[in-house]
Amino acid sequence: MIADKPEVTVESALIFEKSVPGRRGVLPPKAPEVDLEALLGAENLRPEPPRLPEVDELTLVRHYTNLSRRQIGIDVTFYPLGSCTMKYNPKVHEAAVQLFADLHPYQDPSTAQGALRLMYELQRDLGEITGMDAVTLQPAAGAHGELTGIMVIRAYHASRGEAEQRRVVLVPDSAHGSNPATASMAGYQVKEIPSGPDGEVNLEALQAELGPHVAAIMLTNPNTLGLFERRILEIAKAAHAVGAQLYYDGANLNAVMGMARPGDMGFDVVHLNLHKTFTVPHGGGGPGSGPVGVKAHLAPFLPVPQVVRRGEGYALEYDRPHSIGQVKSFFGNFGALVRSYAYIKMLGAEGIRKSAELAVLNANYLKELLKSEGFRIPYDRTCMHEFVAQPPEGVRTLDVAKGLLEMGYHPPTVYFPLIVKEALMIEPTETESKEALEAFARAMGEVVRKDKEWLEGAPYTTPVRRLDEVQANRRPKLRWGE
Ligand SMILES: *Cc1c(COP(=O)(O)O)cnc(C)c1O
């Protein structure tokens, strides 16, 4: 049974097709008489009302409940997506977010002191965890934090009259794609640094590229192979010796938080992914948050407004002449900030450290279990919070991923980092139990022992079978009725 065509086995996922003219779920209050033409201009009004689905409430509830049941998420199953830290988001965080449900971003700051205090304390706590002197909470995701951080670095070099001279950003060949994309979007030339045979940055190759033309080095530590960069202090020293700034991609902070701080390793700028390390749910494209922390010499360039302490209270400070400006409407994704604040306050310093220890322990335990199921480990030493594996000889990573879907699991990250062939990048996180890890390892073993035909046909019982991923990317159908 080999699926050569995608086969959609479920009823329509389109609410439009359930629409019956005149049917309704709610009757909204009658709109006040407003002269829309005068307010918006006639040319901005639709000639006809929009075509919206008309359904009763029960149809609507069933529609979305059934859609949600076709989804794999962390609340449904183990989700070991490497580099994404798919940890459980405790439900009490949602209750905390509800406390702020009536707040509006246009409210006068004097009436939103609790929210500002939360942001102020979160800035301080994230600064403490990363070893940075100042933090902005504005960026909406990790990649957005990267862009913000690199713009801050550019503004710093410009303030010293070195913007023209420093044209290059160095990025290791194991880096997440967003690193070179960020540097190039910020107008820099990207120069790739090869990894050594131990999976770490090759220090000699790095030193050969360093010079007064380099603006920054972007690194993540532990790196995307799940290995700690043991020569990080030497790298920092070499970068600073030529006036370059060291940028920390904080996506892997879960391995070290509470134990080691990027600021102490010599990094000048850090972004965090609150939707990875600090539990904010993600994976469906929902709002994330990518705060950026910097050392004192870069603080004047951070975006405005900055949340500051003023007298007894808290205020939004806009008067910062060297700032790169505002990078997001309002003050960042506030709901994400509340969840992360609740997480940090509930765990405390001890709990944060313990989370990182357990994340590392879980990853190492799973790595050993998978070895006994026949998986190969290309860089086999004690890993941090994740590791990269390869299936047994002759089995394709793509087929392992599709087979896992059939077993009810979300697959690991596949074919990344690019420097490992047939890579499976596995990050269990600290929130999984020993039993969950063992069950997953058994499922992985079962998948790779299936025959070729089964593997190439999987998955069989999911709402959608194997898709043509190239066409899905190149020619996505985004319009209803096409
Ligand atoms: C996830 C990730 C990013 C990008 O973060 P987003 O929040 O997805 O924009 C950058 N670097 C690494 C290593 C990551 O894992």
Write a structural description.
The chain has helices spanning 36-40, 57-69, 92-98, 113-130, 142-159, 178-185, 203-209, 232-241, 262-265, 334-372, 397-406, 434-449, 452-457, 469-474; strands at 134-136, 168-172, 189-193, 214-219, 245-249, 269-271, 292-294, 306-310, 313-317, 387-389, 413-414, 424-426. The chain is α/β, with parallel strands linked by helices and 482 residues long. The protein has a seven-stranded mixed β-sheet, with helices on both faces. Strands 10-12-11 form a three-stranded antiparallel β-sheet, with helices on one face. Strand 4 (214-219), helix 8 and strand 5 form a beta-alpha-beta unit. The longest helix is centred in the C-terminal third of the chain and has 39 residues, at 334-372. The model is unreliable at 1-10 (pLDDT under 50). The structure holds pyridoxal-5'-phosphate. Residues 83-84, 141-143, 176, 178, 220, 224, 249, 251, 273, 288, 290 line the site of pyridoxal-5'-phosphate (PLP).
